[in-house]
Structures
1.
Amino acid sequence: MDAPTHSSVAQLERESYTGSDPEKRATQTYNVETKIAQVGQHDVFDDEGAGAGMDPVYHAKAKVLGDAFQEMGMGKYQWYLFYLTGFGWFSDNLWPVVTGLLLPPTINEFNYQGGWLKLAQALGSLVGCAFWGVSSDIWGRRWAFNSTLFITGVFAMAAGASPNYIALCALVGAWSVGVGGNLPVDSAVFLEFIPPSHQYLLTVLSIWWAFGQLVGSLVAWPLFANFSCASASDCPRASNQGWRYFLYAMGGLMTLLFLLRFAVFHLHESPKFLMSRGRDAEAVAVVHAVARFNGKESSLTPEMLQRCEREAEKSREHEGGGREGKAVDTSVWGSVRRTMGTFGGSHVRSLFATPKLAFSTSILIVIWALIGLAFPLYNGFIPYFLATRGADFGDGSINITYRNQVILSVVGLPGALIAGWMVDLPYLGRKGTLATSTIVTGVFLFASTTARSSDALLGWNCGYSVTSNVMYGVLYAISPELFPAKDRGTGSALVASANHICGALAPIVAIYANIMTAVPIYVAGACFIVGGFLAFLLPFEPRGKASI
């Protein structure tokens, strides 16, 4: 729809459902005139009673704020955020890789089952994902945005001094609480400051994932090669300092990135968060501050936001014969109830409202769960697998092992760009690209167990590195597109929960499967292949279509 010439309409839809039949659905629309150029419809969440979902007035105001950022355009403030939030993606992939790299030297020194280290990481990430996501909706984005990297850095450096594997596992779990909050918080911060026309950049942010793996491998290579024991038979602490230096370095890097966020760049509180707490004037002030930083001016005024409330109240009075509408609770506990309402039964039921939508939702949950099991199984134990297989080939030195890890990181860098090209191909689209890349990823893992030389093994794993990056790039794009907008938060929570829970199961599988064999690799490969075939069964193809 073309935007009006002089003004636009911020529309607020309030849907009341009496059944699954679309003809029984009554839609009430509130119109609020603004001076800001209108953009496409944003997320619309269901409002089915107090606490069941977001208040409809909130969505009218959110639309106005979105139009204000669209009027402002993409400026240097948003580009700075692209890098600063990219640190979160960087950290999110770096630390699982770090944990995997720690396995060979720490197993040699402490003589323990490496699966416990991965289990501590998975449980910490699960706690962090839940805690930081909810708390950022209660107390705001800024403190969570600045705290996650700090917590990760402090506990990582402390882990470098671990006297035994119990202390190491505990500190890995602690730093993973910080790591787990990166994506839910950073994605919210980024999306709430960029114009809607540039929301595709959220997908591009995945390039930072690949850089996280690359940097971790590059730093680990010289440290582990020169300051590590060759075997567990003779491995005192004094001759196995490499992994400790590595944790000091990576923890220090996280602390530096925290300082860049906290001391160098001033992050304003999210305008949408401020507005949701009834602080409209502060929200408008933030929009104007960002506009000034970009060398622009904004026409947004507090009156535009307040008008949303007046129009909604008039509509309620007209609809109910003068009865008063329930005021929006802007207290902390009101925010808690709205946040927890995202997980309410009504939103879950909406994701399964029709057989086709229920099938799509179920398939997505299973795919995320399978990949949640497969990815940590492979990434967590591949350094140990490479070392033992390399030893079979006569070249299992620490130097060769981490050289290969760097190579795997480098070849995976183009994955996000390849994914961006493939998803728009007519005969592939999102669904075909996801299915194909996931199946091929599993095939590469199975093929790696047939290698009879170190070079062949490295080649198969290079293929995995590329296709897995393609797979993740598409997965993070297609999932929100396949959920109805008003229930997208609940859908995202469901798939993320499945992913993290299965991620916590991965170390248990490895513990009982014996990481000295290729069994974890077989399990991971099977999960990828099954997930890929399930992707072919998705009933919707988002390519070339607007998400609802």
Note: The radius of gyration is 25 Å.
2.
Amino acid sequence: MAADFQRGTMGPLVGAIDQGTSSSRFLVFNPNTAELLSLHQVELKQTFPKEGWVEQDAKEILQSVYECVEKTCEKLKQLNIDIGNIKAIGITNQRETTVIWDKTTGEPLYSAIVWLDLRTQSTVDRLLKKIPGHDKCFFKSRTGLPLTTYFSAVKIRWLLDNVEEVGQAVREGRAMFGTIDSWVIWSLTGGKDGGIHCTDVTNASRTMLFNIHTLEWDAELCKFFDIPVDILPRVRSSSEIYGLMSSGALTGVPISGCLGDQSAALVGQMCFKNGQAKNTYGTGLFLLCNTGHKPALSQHGLLTTVAYKLGRDQPACYALEGSVAIGGAIVRWLRDNLCIAPSSKEIEMIAAEAGSSYGCYFVPAFSGLYAPYWEPTARGIICGLTQFTNKKHIAYAALEAVCFQTREILDAMNKDCGVPLQTLQVDGGMTNNKILMQLQADLLCIPVVKPSMPETTALGAAMAAGAAEGVGVWSLNPDDLTAVTCERFEPQINSEESERRYAWWKKAVRRSMGWETSEPHTGETSIFCSLPLGFFIMNSLLMLIGAKYISG
């Protein structure tokens, strides 16, 4: 291996910035072999200022990206690899998360509102009143998306309505909006000193302001949400040179690839043919199926999204997507909120010790239910508890919940596509959990296939960057793509047992619905909120006054 790392013998390399909800990373690949050479990762904080609110510090995100790039370059030098061989950088990112910043100062005007955030439910309810029949799918033929708290447009609207600094900057022409890719690209290419304000089609398609047919910002949608078009980034393909790194160890290297994280994983799994699909296990769960060059509208609660557009002159490809809000986040919640184990690995271990949930079912609807229900009133529940239940069973139930949620969106995908998937390709951090992967195969009753190199999201961004016109160091010709070795998990329980457990899960899901409304919690109650109690007290007061009057 050391012989392979001799300076100057590696040939061209490609880097990838993977900016996720939980962490930022910078990875470097050899485009000839798709081999990962080095990486650095920085975990990120999420803050929860109020119930249902989820925020991140946009400056912390940016600083973590800078740190990852510099640290990875240092590691490459230690391996005697010339960082001058890095010919391009791709970016992949958490989608929908919304940042608005001041282009004159380069400072964010508010925290980044994370895709999971629920504060905009009242905004959604108000907007629905403007739509005939209050139909949340009214714009789906244009955007592929239902009107929910998930997408960027309602987050922008909330910022305009509630943050004076944002409204003033918009009125004065100083405001820029972007999802995380836009914020990072603008900053890395110069920021207030000439940074490039752009996004790609995959990220734009998650804003609800983008027409997935024309591949342009939609003036009517911008008018409906009352969002000025001039704060939006320019939309470009997923594979072209956007600008050059303006500082740091990689100054002058082109940024030439950009894909939302789930699209990047689809590319990294090499799902380039109609009908090929993958499921990513990250903070959430995301099942995407390539539907080719025409968008297919779901009849079963899935989203239609732009999968990729790999070049300015290349056609866009589309995908059906099943999005689940809480995947890996459920393990983090068990670790950080319930403190049932000090690490995610130990949660896997205690779940393995249980071997079963013993009738305990966990529906992690912390942010309502996403696909296929799109039910904002749902909240998380744990049910089927007995005196026998302990933390091991709850840990096992949490892993089962991840698998059951995948089963729900896979069922919807099979109904929409008409041809059931015979195997499920998987990726993401949770796929390192072998118990989870076996559970998934058991509950789907089909094999689960995991690539031996798990960094498929970053790989997809690197492929897009390396293939860009003017870079040309990574061929996307199917005959040139490196074959990937995989680990395969076969179902080990009979289908009757799987269906029985799935039926109990569905029962638990129904129990989770209808818990919440968009009415704000004041935290205060009045004795007169109870009508009978109010009458009782008023009558008692009148009787006391009457008695005092008679006795006087």
Note: The longest strand covers residues 35-43.
